[in-house]
Amino acid sequence: MHKLLCCIFLFLSVSSTLTTAILADQSTSPSTPIINPQCKAFFKAIGDADNRDPQIKLDKTILASYSGHNINDLGNFGSCTMNSSYTYLIMQVGVKPENVDGYVGLCSPGYCSVYDWGNESDWLQTTIPQIGGPNLTNLTFTFLDPLNLDIHTSAGSYLSVFLVLACVGLTLAGTFCTSLFEKKEKGESPNTESHYIRFNDSQNLGSQIPMSSGATSQFFGLNRVASGISSSMNNSNENLERIFRDDEPKTFSQRVFQSFDASRNYDELVGKESRLDYDKNLHLWDGIKFFALLFVILGNVFLLSGTSKNAPNALYFAQNSWWFLVVSMAPYALDTFLFVSGFIAAYQLLEQFKELPFGLANLLKVYFHRWVRLWPTYAIIILFYWKVLPFLSSGPAWFKFVNFSQACEKTWWKNFLLLDNIITSPVNDHCMIWGISVSLEMQMFLFTPFIIWLYLKDREYGKTSIWVLVLLSICAGYSFAIQAELPYKMQINPPPDLNAIFNDLVSNPMVHWCTYFIGIYAGILYRNYKNGERNFYYWVQQHWVGGYLITFFSLLLLFVCLILFPRTEQKNTIQWPQSIVYGWIAAGRTLVVVCIWLVLTPALSGSMKTVKNFLSWGVFKMISNLLYPIILVNFIVVLFIFSSDTQFAEFSLSKNVYMTLTVLIVSMVVGTLLHLVVERPFILMAKGMTASKRNRFSLRGLDEQNSLVKA
User: Fold this and answer.
1) What crossing angle do the helices spanning 408-416 and 360-387 adopt, rounded to 10°?
2) Which of 86, 129, 313, 475 is the most buried (most CB within 10 A)?
3) Which of the two residues, 281 and 672, has the higher pLDDT score?
4) What is the pTM assigned to this prediction?
5) How many Cα atoms within 13 Å fall on the side-chain side of residue 182?
C-alpha cells in the first residue's frame, strides 16, 4: 500500500511539472499588421484645428473626454467601452532617465489598432499634451489592448482545474466515507464510549482511561509510546495534558479517506482536538507570526498602491510620515518567520534524534515530510495563479495581473524545484516572486538535522558551527551591500540595479542564515530548559526582575532600530557614515530577531502571564495554522483586487488600512480551503507512509509545530 501511495505522489509531481511544460500552449508569432490609412488621417487631423470633418471632430472629442488626463489615469473605461465604435487601449509611458513606467487610458477610434498607435510614437512626443497628458520629454511608448490580452487556455489550465477538482472530490469523499466508517464501527462495537485517553501525569496512565474492551489490545502499544515520551519529560517543571486518539485507520483506503476528512481537519484547525506533544508555551509564537503576517500584507498593499495617479502625495507620505516607517518593517517579517521556523525545528528534532538513530533512512523521512509539507500546496497555487486566474476577471488594469502571472511562462520550473532564489531571474520575470520564502525555508531546513546531530555528538562543536554560520551570513550581507552601493534611505523609485539588489540581499539564502540559525540556537536552549537544564531560560525564570529588564531594553532597542534610526535618514537629520549603513543592512535583521526573542524569553520561561495569554489567543493560533497558505495567496488577493478595478488604487492611509483588513479576511478564507483540501490531507498521508506506527507519532509533531513563512 505504501508503494501505491508513493506512486500517487509521483504522479501528482510529474503530471503537474512535466505535462505543463510539454503540453503548454505555444503562441505563434503574429504577422506584421498594415497601417490603417483612416487612422493615419485621424492622427494628422488631431493637430489641425481647421478640420471640418464631423467624424474626426467627434473622435477627437471622445478621445479627449474619455482618455486619461495624467500619468496612471486610466480614463473612463465604462463610457468608452459602451460604444462599439471605439476601442479602449492602454498607453505605457516610460520615462527614461528616472526608469519609471506610467499608464494612460486611451479611448481610441475603432479603426485605430495598437499597432497604429505604436507607429505614431514620434508624433506623441510633441502632441501628448493635447490629449491631457503631462508635458514630458525622453518618453517611450508601448500600447496594449487590455480586453484582448495574449492569454490562451492550455493543457496547464485543464491540469490545474483537474488537480483542484480532484482534491475537492477526495475531500468530499473522505468526509463522507470516514463518517460511514465511524458509524459502522459504532454499530459493531456498541459498548464503545470513548476514543480518547487523557492523563495529566505521564507516569500514571491508569488513572483516567475510559476504554472499551475493543480498545484494550491497542492500549498496550499506546502505553509503550507514552512511556517513551515520559522518559524525556520527567524533568519538566509542568505536567502537560495530552490527548491520544485511539483511532488509527486500519486499511489503506481508510487512511486516505481519513486524511481528506474535512470535518476532523477543521476540528484540529480550530482547536477542538488537541494535538500531540505540544508545549503550550510555544503558542506564544502564534501571536508573533500573526503580527508579522500583518506587516507583510500591509507592505504588499502599500507597494501596489504606490503607482497611483497621486504619486506625488505618495512620495511626500513616504518621506515625511512616521507611519510609513511601520510599512518599511515588512521585510523583517521574513526573517522573523525564519527565526521561528528554526526555533521550532530545533525544538522538535533535538528530541527526535535522541530517540531515533541518525541514519539515512530517518533523514530522508524527515526531508520527505518537510517537502510534502511545502510542495503540493505551493505547486497547486502556482498552477492556478498562472493558468486559471488570468481568465477570471478583466478591466483596464487587468493587464497588471496578467503581466505578473505570465512571468511563470519562463521560470515556473525554478519554483517547482524550489531553486528560484538560487537560479536567479530578472525581477520582472520572476514567477511568484514572494514564493522565495518557501525555497529559503526548504534550503535552510536541509542543514538543520546535521546541526542537531553535531550538537548531540559534541555540544561545543554544535554551538561553534551555529555561530560560524551566523557570522558568515552577516559578512556576506555586508559584502553584498557594498557591491550594490545600496542606500538605506527609503525611496519610491526603484534603484537602477534592482535585480542585483534583490538577488543578493533579498533572495540569497546566505544573508538569511543568521536569523534561521539563531532560531535553532534559541530552540535548542529552550528544549534543554524543558528537559531540566539550568541555562539562560532558567536564570530568567529565577530572576524575574532581570527578565523584565531584558524585555524592556529589548523593546527599547527595537524602537531605536526600526523607528528612530530610519527616521534620522528619512528627515536627513543625521548623515550616517556609509559603513554604518552597510553594517545595518547586513546585521539589522539579526538584531531585530534577537530582540524579539529576548522580549519573549520571560514568557517562555513561565513569567509574564498576561503577554503569554494574549499571544496564545485562540484566534492567533488558528491563523498561525493557516500561515503557510495565507503567505502564498495574500499577494495574489491584493493583486487581484487592485487589478480588477477600473482605476489604479489611490495612495491613502485609511484606504490601505481598510484594504489590509479585507485582504487578511479573504486570504484566511482561501487559506482555510487550501488547508482542508490540500495542505493538511497531504501532511497526514505523508505521516502514514513514511514511518511505522511508533515513528508516525514521532514525526507528527514536526508538521504540527512547523512555522513556515513565507514573505
Assistant:
1) 160
2) 86
3) 672
4) 0.81
5) 17
